[in-house]
């Protein structure tokens, strides 16, 4: 079921790219842009509605929303034997820049087979200092709040994207590739069959900004961030969570390689009957050279080992309870056995003083113990990990080659003294008897 739905979504992306958006305009110089169901004619582009809320610069291909509000069906176009509709649609080939000013609310209402809050047939870049609340409608096939046939890049602004109602498949943000370098994003998928907060057909990259992505409650699959190729985290803050699902739930799904060198990522799988992980890497590797990473899931924190440049800690349960253990750096430790893992780990170390062995008791070298992860270390900075905890023990000296040594022989001294005294008494008695015999 999961693979069939993914294939259907991918097919929709490919077909839309191939056929384009079949909306006609009679103007010789087309803006390829429709906002709120109205075509943006070149002569009206500077101020579409005459109130300063929507403007379009043809030279730079920049759309600016300034306290714009719209709720409605938008513009419709055919797609095979289905209908598509979007509140805002751009069907040109040039890269489009969307600038946000003030507070903007865009809601596309239901009725189409494929519903979009915003649809971009090109590369789309969102920036600005304003706020955008955008909702995709309930649709019979698929629904997206923001959809880019090619790459979607967010550099600024605040975006709150969601899908209203119930659709079989949905994602709040979707692009051929998704890149975030700034701004704030809150992306929430809807409750139904297949749901993701952010869906990237190719790579997902975050180098800045603050992103929260969550899937909805589903009968099949729920995912915070679904990426069919590589996931790269170099900065910013990313929180991704799958919700309750009958089959699969992941915080982050990565179809290629996962790498992280900065920023902070917290990913959690939701309640699931079959599978729940913080990070699902399908066929690739996972490398961590910087940043802060926390993964948790009811099945496992991660489906693959994390190759980390620094140590972490693993927990028996997804809430951080139960037995825990230190995950050594630069090793492919089997941390997938843990339900929660965190990198890096800040040790709380207690020094264990060196102790010399005796003939009967073992001793130990000087070492340090972390009260949190339970790891043993040779240094006070917690950098030299002791993998074998028994190696700190020094055996007792009491063996065949080293006979047991006693203390000062006081017992023998007392016994000798007693014997000397007894001998003296005997001598005295003999002397007295001889003296009496002589006198007689």
Could you explain how this protein is built, in words?
The protein is mainly beta. The protein has 2 domains: 2-343; 349-394, no CATH class. Helix content is 11%, strand content 45%. It has 2 helices and 39 strands. The strands form 4 sheets. The chain has a 21-stranded mixed sheet that branches. Strands 1, 2, 6, 7, 10, 13, 16, 19, 22, 25, 27 and 29 form a 12-stranded mixed sheet that branches. The radius of gyration is 37 Å and the shape is rod-shaped.
Question: What does this entry show, briefly?
Answer:
The protein has 440 residues and is mainly beta. It is built from two helices and 39 strands.
Q: Biggest β-sheet, characterized? A: 21 strands, mixed
Number of helices: 2
- Number of domains in the coordinates? 2
**Terminus-to-terminus distance:** 130 Å
Rg on CA atoms, Å: 37 Å
The rough form would be described as rod-shaped
Strand segment tally: 39
Structural class, by secondary structure, is mainly beta
Helix content: 10-25%
Strand content: 35-45%
What number is the mean pLDDT?
86
Uncertain parts: 4-9, 11-28, 402-407
């Amino acid at each position: 079921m999961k693979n069939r739905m993914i294939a259907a979504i991918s097919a929709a992306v490919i077909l839309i790219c191939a056929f384009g958006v079949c909306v006609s305009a009679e103007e010789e110089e087309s803006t390829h842009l429709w906002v709120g169901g109205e075509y943006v004619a070149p002569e009206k582009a500077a101020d579409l509605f005459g109130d300063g809320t929507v403007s379009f610069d043809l030279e730079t291909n920049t759309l600016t929303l300034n306290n714009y509000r719209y709720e409605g069906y938008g513009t419709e176009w055919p797609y095979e034997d289905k209908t598509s509709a979007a509140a805002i649609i751009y069907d040109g080939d040039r890269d489009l820049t969307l600038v946000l000013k003030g507070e903007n609310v865009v809601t596309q209402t239901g009725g189409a087979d494929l519903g979009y809050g915003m649809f971009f047939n090109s590369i789309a870049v969102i920036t600005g200092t304003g706020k955008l609340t955008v909702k995709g409608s309930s649709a019979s096939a698929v629904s997206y709040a923001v959809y880019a046939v090619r790459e979607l890049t967010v550099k600024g602004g605040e975006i709150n994207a969601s899908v209203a109602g119930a659709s079989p498949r949905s994602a709040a943000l979707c692009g051929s590739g998704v890149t975030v370098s700034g701004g704030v994003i809150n992306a929430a998928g809807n409750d139904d069959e297949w749901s993701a907060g952010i869906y990237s057909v190719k790579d997902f990259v975050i180098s800045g900004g603050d992103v929260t992505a969550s899937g909805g409650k589903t009968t099949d699959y729920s995912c915070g961030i679904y990426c069919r190729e590589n996931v790269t985290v170099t900065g910013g803050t990313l929180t991704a969570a799958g919700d309750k699902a009958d089959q699969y739930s992941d915080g982050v799904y990565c179809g290629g390689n996962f790498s992280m060198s900065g920023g902070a990522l917290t990913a959690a799988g939701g309640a699931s009957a079959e599978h729940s992980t913080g990070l699902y890497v399908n066929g690739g590797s996972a490398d961590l050279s910087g940043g802060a990473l926390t993964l948790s899931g009811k099945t496992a924190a991660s489906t693959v080992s994390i190759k980390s440049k620094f140590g972490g800690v693993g927990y028996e349960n997804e809430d951080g309870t139960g037995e825990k253990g230190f995950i050594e750096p630069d090793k492919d430790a089997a941390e997938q056995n843990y339900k929660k893992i965190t990198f890096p780990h800040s040790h709380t170390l207690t020094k264990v003083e060196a102790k010399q062995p005796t003939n009967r008791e073992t001793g130990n070298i000087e070492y340090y113990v972390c009260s949190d992860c339970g790891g043993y270390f040779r240094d006070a900075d917690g950098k030299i990990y002791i993998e074998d905890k028994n190696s700190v023990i020094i055996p007792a000296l009491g063996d065949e080659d080293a006979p047991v040594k006693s203390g000062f022989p006081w017992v023998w001294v007392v016994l000798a003294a007693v014997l000397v005294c007894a001998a003296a008494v005997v001598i005295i008695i003999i002397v007295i008897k001889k003296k009496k015999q002589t006198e007689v």
